[in-house]
From TrEMBL:
This is Trk system potassium uptake protein TrkH. GO terms for biological process: metal ion transport. GO terms for molecular function: monoatomic cation transmembrane transporter activity. It is a multi-pass membrane protein. It is found in: Cell membrane. Keywords: Cell membrane, Ion transport, Membrane, Transmembrane, Transmembrane helix, Transport. It comes from Haladaptatus litoreus. One of its GO terms (cellular component) is plasma membrane. Belongs to the TrkH potassium transport family. The chain crosses the membrane at residues 21-42, 48-69, 81-103, 176-204, 224-245, 290-309, 325-348, 403-425, 470-492, 535-555. The keyword Transport applies. The keyword Zinc does not apply. Pfam families: TrkH.
Amino acid sequence: MPRRPTVAGVPADLAVILRDIGALVLMQAALMTFTVLLALAFEEFYVALAFLIAAGITAGAGGTARKLFANAPNPVMKHGMVIAAGGWFATAIFGAIPFFLAAHLTPASVMNSYVPAGANYEPIRIGGATTFSSLAYYGNPLHAVFESMSGWTGSGLTMAVHEPSLPRAIQWWRSLIQWVGGVGVIVLTTAILARPGSGSYALYRAETREERIHPSIVHTVQTVWRIFLLYTILAVVLLFGAIWWSEPQQGLFETFWQSLNHAMTALSTGGFSVTDNSIQSYDSPLVEGVLLPIMALGAIAFPIHYLVLHDHDFDELFSDLQTRWLFFLFVAGSLVLSVQNIIALPMASEAFTQTGWLGTQNLGVSAVAGDATRDSVFQFISALTCTGFQSSDIGNWSAGGKLIISGAMVLGGAAGSTVGGIKIIRGYMISKGIQWEFSRVFLPASAVVNTRVNGRKLDRNQMYEEFSEAAIVSMLWIILLITGSVVLVNVAPGFGYADALFEVASAQGNVGLSTGIVGPAMSPLGEGMLVLNMWVGRLEIIPILVFIRSALFGLNP
C-alpha cells in the first residue's frame, strides 16, 4: 500500500487545511494589532494590553501554521469546505480572546469610567468589586466566544446588556469583525494573499459564494471590497447627517463615532450597536429612513452592485430575479406585518397615551397605528436583510408578529450578498421545482421540458440538480431550526415557543433581533447551542457536515 504524501510530517490534506486556517487567523492578528493603536489613542491602556496579548497569541498560532506547512499543495473543494468551517470556528475562538482578556485585565474602577454619566445600570459583581460596565460579562469565556461568533458571523446577538458602557476599542472591535465577517474572512484573506488559480476558487465557493464579477477570483474579491468600502464611506456620511439632526446635543465626535459603527454594522447586515436599545434609542424616523436603503444595499448581490456602479446598468436592479423579489418582499412583508401589528394593538387606554414635555396626551388610534406601521416596516426590512437593528421592543409583540419576522429571518436576502438565511434564490428554486414537477404530470414521458431561471435556460438534469441542492439545504436548515427551538424553549423559563423559534431563527439566520432570551443570564446550554446555530447558519450547513465527517473519518472517500 503506497504511503500518503506528507508535509512536515503531517498528512498533506491536513497540512493544506492547517496552512490556510493559519492564514485566516494571521489576518485576524493584524486587525487586533490595529485595534491596539486605537485603544492607545483612547487611553484605554488595559484594553490595549488585552489586544496586544491576543494579537501575539493569534499571530503565533497562525504564523506557525503558515510557516510549517508553506509547501502544502493548493486546496481543492474537499479542502475548501473544511477550511471554511474550521477557519470560521477558529476565527471566532481567537476573536474571543480580546473580549476575555479585557474583562480580566481591566479593574472594576476603570470599567466604571466607561459608563456614560447619568446612566442607571444594574450593578455587576466581579470578585469582591462592583462595576456597571457590560465589559465584565466577557470574563465568562462562553460569553466571550458567543460575542465573537456573533460578530464574525454577522449575527448581532450580544452579551453586552449596555453597549455604551463598553470601552471604545471593544465597541470598534465588535463593529470591525462584523464589517469584515459580512463579506467573509476567506474573501478578505483571498484578496490579501492574491493566490491565483483553482485554490482560491475552492475557498471562495466553500464560503457559500458562487458568482464571479471577473474571470479571476482574486480580482472578483478585490472588486467586492472596493464596492464595500465605497458604500461604507457613503453610509457614514448619510448617518452622520441623520444622527446629528436627531441628536445635536451629542457633539461632533460622538455623532461621528455612532455613524461609523452603525454604518459598518448596517452595511454588513450585522446589527451590533453602540447605543442602548439599538436604533430604538434614537426614536428618529430620519435615522431609520437612512438605515433602510443601507440595509437593503447589504442584501443585494455584489455582482449587481458592480453592474450598476461600473456599467451604470440600473435595469439590473429590476431584471435580476433576486433583487426584484427582494424589493417585492420588502413591500409585501412590511404591509402584512403592519396589518398584523395594528390588529394586535392593545385596546387599553394607556396604549394610546404618551407622557412627554407637553404632559400626558391622548395619541389617538391613527397615531398609534402610524407608529406600529413605522416599526413594522423597519423591523421587517431589518429581518429580511438579516441586519438585526431593533427600533421596537419585539418581546412585547404578539406571537403572530414574531412568526412573520421569524419567516423573514429564515428566508434572508440575495445569495452573493452579506446576508444569512436560506436565501431568496433557494426559496424561488423550491417553488419553481414544485411547479415544474407538477407540470410534468400532464406531459408525455418523451417531452423535452426546459425552464428559465434568471435568464438561464435549464434542462431536466440541471433543474433536478438545482432543485435538489435548494431543497436539501433548506430541509437541513429547517430541521436544525426546529430542533434548536425545542431545546431553547425548555431552558428559557418564562418564554413561549414563538420566542424560542424567533431567537433560534435570529441566530441561525445571522440576524440579531431578540425577544429577550439572549443575555448573560441565559442557560449555558442554550447559549452554546446558539453559538452552533450562528456558525452553521453562516456557512449554510453543508461545509459544517463535511467538517464533522472529515474530523471523524478523514478526507478520503
